[in-house]
Amino acid sequence: MDKIHAVQINTPSYAKDGKLHVRLTKGYFQNVRRLTSWPLIVLFFLVVWLEWEGTPLLLFSFEQRQILFFGTQLSWHDLPLLAGIMIAGASLLFFAAVAWGRVWCGFACPQSIWTWIFIRIEDWIEGPAQQRSRREKRALTLNDSLRRITKHLLWIGVASLTSITFTGYFIPIRDLVSPDVFQSSTTLGWLIIMATLTYLNAGLVREKICLHACPYSRFQAVMFDQHTRTVTYDIERGEPRGKRRQVEALQDPIGDCVDCGICVQVCPTGVDIREGLQAACIDCAACIDACDSVMQTLERPKGLIRFASEVQLQKQPSPLIRPRLVGYGAVMLVAMSAVLLGFSTKENLRVDIARDRGPLFMQLDERTFCNLYNVKVERFHPDLRNVSIRLTDPTLFELFGPTQLDLTDQNAQWIAYRVCSDQISSPRAEVGFLVEGHGMSRQLNTSFFTRSLDFQNH
Predict the structure, then answer these.
(1) Which of 35, 195, 233, 433 could form an SS bridge with 159, CB 3.0 to 4.6 Å?
(2) Domain containing 435 — which CATH number?
(3) What is the DSSP secondary-structure string of 361-393?
(4) Average pLDDT over residues 25-38
């Protein structure tokens, strides 16, 4: 079986100044990319402001040690659910990679989405790629300086909005936009760090993240096989490449590629797809749209660059559904089913009971014994605000401690209780705690001691 090999990435001829001046293009796949990315952008900036009955719709609260997840409250006890979500997401990523390559990177990855936003701002302020390239090679004029300053100010604005929104998923967004945020050096420092990272990654570093920092680009070759549909250049059809005037002069047959270089100019990572599959290629399909527009102008068939597998280029059958793909799909479905089952059986009321670290029991008189307990009640439902706590058998035991608990502002604190009885003759009995509230209940049983077991045995 032939393997797809990555090749060395060379600096494109149009980027000899050390910077990629990405040329924007239009086409079918760019429309698909925008239809994918813009809803994600809207959700990112919108969901953080939405609330459900006074609580954020999605919030990772370190202060309360809870995750508010679309009306459901999760705690550290629900970490297996989060692990299941991550496994399902990773399986979906692998599923897509085996079938169509790095489409996640090209169409939905936040790094790619924000990079395209910054590129469009750059194109809007400083002009198309060719103009930007010429400006880089000449001395700055006043007009160039004003354009560049405006561009960076807009970049900083987008980065700041991104930082505030992202932080709003950990601290309520309405607290972040209040003047009090400037009184917290920790929060303000975090906002500045996130804004700086966004500005650097999407504005200045860009393709170097995909080239050197993204781990997925390093193990993508393990995910691909000869049937994976990736952005591919049809060598048999395109080579030897050349321009029309060269053909007329030499009278030699050439392929459909006219060596215009537009496929390289529109690539956000500077890849020349004609050199084969490369680690930096994110399958954004910009080169496909650019090449198709050239082929259409030259009245030649589209698809010189297209999503195709290695086997398809060899004019052989290439099934999309295959055991490897089915395997990743099965893992994804199992993980998603487990997560759904976990959510359906999740505890909305959790009660923990621990014995006091003091003596095993206290003896008040000849028949009355008392045990000390610490009880912690946690709520994971927005409607559960008050609970009552009592013993399941009040005829045998008497409870000393608060019987009504307000969980609205309670941060999962341990509360001391004393249980006494004068009707237990055995050295050890079972006592049950019952916590009820808003139609929910939780019962836990624990041991009640009246005398030392060792003493009884003697």
Answers:
(1) 195
(2) 2.60.40.10
(3) -EE-SSS-EEEEEEEEEEE-STT--EEEEEES-
(4) 95
